[in-house]
Fold this protein.
Amino acid sequence: MALRRFRRAGVLGLCAVLVAGLLTACASPSPKTSRTTDPTPSWATPSVSPYTTGVKSNLSYGPNSSQVMDVCYPPTRSQTTGAFLFIHGGSWSSGDKGDFESLCGVVARLGFVGATMNYRMFAQKATYADMLADIDLALATYTDTARQDGWPISKVALMGASAGGYLSLMYAYTRQPALPIGFVVGLSSPTDFIDPAFVASATDDQYTQLSKLLGVDLSKESVDARQAALKAASPAYRVTAGAPPTILAHGAKDTIVPYSNAVDLATQLALAGVSYDLLTYPNSDHNLADDPDVSNRFLSLLLAYATRYLA
């Protein structure tokens, strides 16, 4: 959730775990299954050739200085290519596209085009609607740029951590972009702003953050009067039967976003008949750092989704 006590280090640590795990999990995929326990491949070491054929940095997708993105291309070309767009966390007020730089390079090395984006945040008076509009612009620029560079993108997966996970999910469930969304991934993502567990524990600071995100005045005393706005801004209540397949990863001991948020979204996905997986990290807080076995399952699942839904 948009909380001042969220530390950017948590997102950076989570990204580092994902990069290390992907390097290991993707070493030599078995012809029978996408899951593997093979060791880290030789190309993961610094002495081997670069991950990508090229990286475009600080590509502008809009007039604001915050509207920039980086694009990573795979080492070999294909007729059509699945893609990832990574959206950083940081309470919608901090963080940077560089948080996903390494992971962007790794997915490119695995044959997918990758991109990681900045977006307008609270310092630019942006609400979640403005941030979703930035994703629209970023995807359009991403598609056009990749095509001009000889990489026609066929589908994209949206993936974000915490605040970025919220934006990924909210975008996937409410927008109809020109580029099809193959699947969406939310790590430690806020999904239900009227969850009783959140309402019971929310501080004045949290309500200030939500006020900025929604563009309405919120306080503990006005929650009941703002139910409609809070519900409309919650991914859990924007799921439809046409929503893309979804991966959720959440710590059972998350002290920033209640675990019940993930359960609420999973329930709505099930009711709508949408394919999804919820991976619970039983010992982890917001950064998902204390369950390496679950992280391994998550990475195998991510690759399985990419193989299935980005083809």
Observations:
- The CA atoms of residues 200 and 220 lie 9 Å apart.
- The first helix runs from residue 8 to 25.
